[in-house]
Amino acid sequence: MQDFKPGEQFAVNDAPELKVHVGDRLDIAVTCKNPQLAIPFNVVGGIVNMDINSADDGSGRSSISSETPRGYLVDATGNIEFPVLGTLHIVGMTLNEVKNHIARLLVEKNYIREPIVKVNIINFKITMLGEIGVGVMPIEDNQINLLQAIAMAGGTRTYGKIDEVRVIRTANGYREMYSVNLKSKELYNSPAFYLQQDDIVYVMPKATKLEGGAFQAVWQYVSPVVSAVSTLSVVYIWIKEFLK
After folding, report:
1. Which helix (H) or strand (E) is 166 found in, with range?
2. What whole-number distance in Å separates Cα of residue 166 and Cα of residue 146?
3. Please, what are the domains in the chain?
4. Which end of the chain is less crowded, N or C, counting CB atoms within 10 A of the terminal residue's CB?
């Protein structure tokens, strides 16, 4: 952010709401004033996904067996199979829209008068590649920006090209690449500043590193030849002096 001057101010953009993608696995919790009424809507893989005895308001959650997949998988058609309510088409909805949709169905069908629904993406992760700490980072709170992700990965390396950080995003069956310049304050206005589930962040290497790598590769083969020529030159000079 070399062009960000001290004391300068500009408007802050709010993080966009995450939308549900195919392959997302959602953690959906339903609670209400009467915990007993919420039990049928918190069953995952045949196991109740809440402990009604741990809290008076029914918000307590119990651990699920490691053999049971957590959450509700959004299948290839964009649906989840939700207890009692059945098949719900939620792909493309924001998490808030999913929450409101389920709450509205519970009320309309007279299951729960005042439901409280919470929705979270369980398998939210970011992949970091290139001149940075490489790895796949799970994000628990479903919100992270590009600078935070780079910091969590240990920062960029010496040869990292920070004026052209690439973010590859998959949504609605398409992949799109964004280029972000970390040297400019305009990075805050980039659609890739706030990362989304399954984003890939790639920090490109500088040209100097590529050139250095190419030089080293060439030198690996040239060096023996140079050494041999140098040795022959020394021998020639020694013989010439000896024959005088």
Report:
1. strand 160-171
2. 10
3. 25-121 (3.30.1950.10), 125-205 (3.10.560.10)
4. C
